[in-house]
Amino acid sequence: MATQTAGVAKKLGKKIARERVARELTQERLAELLGVEQETISRFERGLTLPPLPRLIQLADVFELPLEVLLRGTTNRAADEAADIADMLAKLSDSDRDLIRRWVTEMCERLSRKR
């Protein structure tokens, strides 16, 4: 894979993984939805294989995203930050995620009352 293509594949792979995790899908479940093997999803996410156009369209549909957002990502900083936070939360236990959600909700309520 050429260097430029490899860079695109890596970036797209990270985006696919981020969207999958944000929707609480396993690689196996996403593979089922797309009608492919789990290893195919793994290869996409690791940037080893670029998904063909029909598969990209399927991915965008499953993630309920415009294809352009899947391919280009977002220029919305808040959305990027939310995706980064989702990645971090995915690594936590359910109870820790619940604790964080409650804390964030409380802080947002407090801060919105200050305005």
Tell me what the structure shows:
The chain has seven helices and no strands. It has 115 residues and is mainly α. The chain folds into two domains: 1-73, lambda repressor-like DNA-binding domains (434 Repressor (Amino-terminal Domain)); 75-115. The mean pLDDT is 90. It is elongated. 77% of the residues lie in helices and 0% in strands.
CATH-wise, what's the superfamily of the largest domain?
Answer: lambda repressor-like DNA-binding domains
Under CATH, the topology of the largest domain can be stated as: 434 Repressor (Amino-terminal Domain)
User: Radius of gyration over alpha carbons?
Assistant: 16 Å
Could you give the order of the helices and strands? Answer: HHHHHHH
Taken together, the total number of domains comes to 2
The residue fraction in helices comes out at over 70%
- Whole-number average pLDDT? 90
Just name the CATH architecture of the largest domain: Orthogonal Bundle
Question: Low-confidence runs (pLDDT<50, min 5 residues)?
Answer: none
Question: CATH class of the largest domain, anyone?
Answer: Mainly Alpha
In angstroms, what separates the terminal alpha carbons?
53 Å
How many E strands? 0
In terms of quaternary structure, what is this? Answer: single chain
How would you classify the helix and strand content by structural class? mainly alpha
C-alpha geometry: elongated
Largest sheet: none
Number of helices: 7
Q: What share of residues are in beta strands? A: under 5%
